[in-house]
Amino acid sequence: MTMDNEISVIDYEAANIGSVLRMLEKAGGKPVRASTPAEISAARRIILPGVGAFDHGMSQLHKRGLVDALNDAALVRRIPVMGICLGMQLMCRGSEEGGLPGLGWMDASVEKFQFDAEDRLPVPHMGWNTVRLCKDNPLLPTIEDRTRFYFVHSYKVRCDREDDVIAKTHYGVDFDSVFSRGNLFGAQFHPEKSHRYGMQLLFNFLKHTVHA
User: Fold this and answer.
1) pTM of the model
2) Is residue 38 part of a domain?
3) Is 25 labeled as catalytic in the residue annotation?
4) Pathway, according to UniProt (predicted)?
């Protein structure tokens, strides 16, 4: 792969980033851990992973003094940033899961899955599911009939602007599973657990942002 493929993965003790690092390597990237403001300031592109509760994730970012550096990277330097699972949700205004404001980079909110008793759909939404493309995009330029990604989440993203939505997924209701605006991207599923489809998405992210 002839590209500038260094990518910084934010380590803020709210994600198990080992599998993310390994999948990025398989996708042709050169991942490095970034856990300080200085390391974020030196990043050329960023992955913001995350698992667990919304407020815990935001608290960890604040505790480590990473929020200002992340805001500068995303909104001032405008380098490519992708949020994964909780990381995608942290890019939104806030979540019904907690009381802390999110990073607020995207005009989007995070809402809890709520189903009628007769629907009998378990929460969290966990396991393999498909995505439906909503517009042309560099992350998922094509979708094969059997493309599946691995999800684990109890809350779902709802974008204010449909133009920000790359793909939707159905689990009782449709929800926004991939979004993008400019240099910002988010995926609700875990590409690092989604085998070749997840690896392809990360490869596409690296390839698309080579000149960023």
Assistant:
1) 0.94
2) yes
3) no
4) Amino-acid biosynthesis; L-histidine biosynthesis; L-histidine from 5-phospho-alpha-D-ribose 1-diphosphate: step 5/9
